[in-house]
Structure of Glycerol-3-phosphate 1-O-acyltransferase:
Amino acid sequence: MTETEPIVVLAQASTPVEREIITRWLREEGLGSEHRGTPTQIDLDVETVAGKLVSRTDDPLVVPVRVLWLPPERDGTRRAHVSDLATLSNPRNPNRLMQRWIVRNAPDRHRVLTGEPALLSELRKRHVAAAGDPGARTFARYIHRTAVVALERSERSVIGDRYKVPRLVAEEILDAPAFRRELDEIAAQTGITSDEAYDRAEAALRELVAVQSRLVTDLFTQAMSPFHKRAWTVHADETGLAELRGYNRRYPLIFLPSHRSYVDPFVLGDVLARNDFPPNHLIGGANLSFWPIGPIARRSGAVFIRRSFGDDEIYKAVVEEYFAYLLTKRFNMEWYFEGGRSRTGKLRPPRYGLLNYVAEAVRSRRVDDALLVPVSITYERLHELGAIASEQLGGKKKPEGLAWMARYVRNQQNSAGQVYVRFGEPLSARDRLQAHGDVFGAEPNEERERRAVQRVAFEVAVGINKITPISANALVTLALLGVSERALTLPELQAVIAPVVKYMDERKIPKGDIDVLGDRTRLMSVLDDLAIAKVVTAYTGGDEPVYSIEPGQHLVAAFYRNSAIHWFVNRALLELAILGAAESGFTDPLRAGWDEAKRLRDLLKFEFFFPEREKFEEEMTEEMLLVDPQWRSRTPSVDEVLEKLTETGFFMAHRALRSFFDAQLVVAERLALRDPSVEVDKNALLDECVAVGKQMLMQARLHSPESVSSELFTTALKLANNRNLMGPGDELLGQRRAEFAEELREVGERISKAELLDASNRRNAPGGYR
């Protein structure tokens, strides 16, 4: 660069103080020895850039400059604090009086930033390549956006990636030629003008786009953290997060956590912030956008999407474009792909809508790739389970609002123990879509693309289950829910749990702090905490304390148990397959056992995430080898296998699967009683199942209150529909419905046999109940 090369400084200054600081800095320190021309200083706004820069015929070096204001340093960090509000000024954007005070009294709280410089000719070339529009006005907007982004990047090098926030999003999307052409096409198809389509798109973007504020992020985090820290002690396995940060330099990350509580985003957000990840764009339903949480959350990165788009093609286009924009700019996202909190404690079937937007962005090459990160968030206890249990029994979900928020905050006053956060192996969206048959660049095929997205979602769910640890409360409720309403002493409870823990060790299942269960005093403490939460009841009037599930709290207890239940499904299926083989009159009982396992797997395919059949057989073989390590080298009889199974010290079928099969039986019997020629009203049938399920429970035809659950009945209806049992149809349909009900009764009888064998085991074990 020669001495005469011109330089234009784009000063982002909103007050005279900031202009003075920049002018003095340029005079005293300047842009460094490599920038030796005399700078021309102009304001960084579209009008000034359009009038004083874009029409120049020379080729100046354009350098964006701004003043960075910092909060006071506290405990080694600079974050806005509630006490800063006493100054009536934002410490990251102080008013002019506060700016002058800082310059005089706290000079360490401000510094001058420069963004990456570029020649005007290079900026013009990039603009034409991106927008295809050489117009002066759009070029000025492009320079403005580019300068702001460059300054944001420079600022993050000082304050850290956790404060990475998007700027001028709506403006950049609306200026994109491809998006404007799409709006023109929608306008032509729907009979509106292009201007009206543009205005509606702009309104949708203003509604949708997260307008993140660093001040609000700091203050909101500080306001909510005390409640959550009082309620939980967070144990986060941060192994691999450094590698994940490395990936994030090239690709956007999409965190897909299990969803069990409204507090999930706060727990995950705290963990990521501690590890200097930029804030996620949290995608949520518009039902949570109520005042004041909605406006605050939007300024902390929340994106509220309407539950239903209907036929609003413009809104659909805006959502798709916004997703593509965030991915292209490498902003991380987070959403709960189950579509809502789990009502049962286990993962719900995934929703595919938002994943479709990611797939389309990758498929269309808007973004090279995106990494899907499975995240497991597991709680020892939750304060919101009473409402969830009520909904499963037919109660109406209370709408979110100020009263709801007040109840939520009040409930966080009590300790709820541990919460475990685990991160799974990231999945390449591009690689996994292609592995499941999505052919990029080929003619669109909706069915093929739909199947690929569904299988990717399945892999994410499996990834979440794979890292979900078993908590102490999960094991305690697993034990107490499986003893037919009876109360257990501490030694009896330990006798139930011990062989299950041994099995967990053999399978290397991840676990929380379950060592406490082997110590009598610490186990009593776990039970006392569950008693305070009204999940367990303790009777202390006899020779020694006994513990059982609190009456009316079976659904709550099942929630804790179900967080771990996926780890025991294959074991439970193996038990039922062996019992089925023992009952069969076939000459090949082994084949009968495998067939039974596959049949049961098919009955549960809407409840659990089973692998493809070949992989399923491998997993079942591994389960069999845990029961009998020499199984492959000999041909044992069914009785010998059953004996080996009994020697493991526990049966799991009645603990893990009974509630699901019982719920299916309720649905099957109600369907069998219906006229097959009449169309089924699903909502009415669900209400009927809840009412009749309560009756069957009182008649002891169901084995536990946890079976009476609208969530389980809904999934059972999916199974019935998958088997073409919903109708309407002819008399053959009625016969198939009756056969379905009978099939489930037979499964129930087999589960009862497993329970009897388990009870016999417990009576004969040291410390077992008599």
Summary: The chain has a mean pLDDT of 86. The chain has 31 helices and 15 strands.
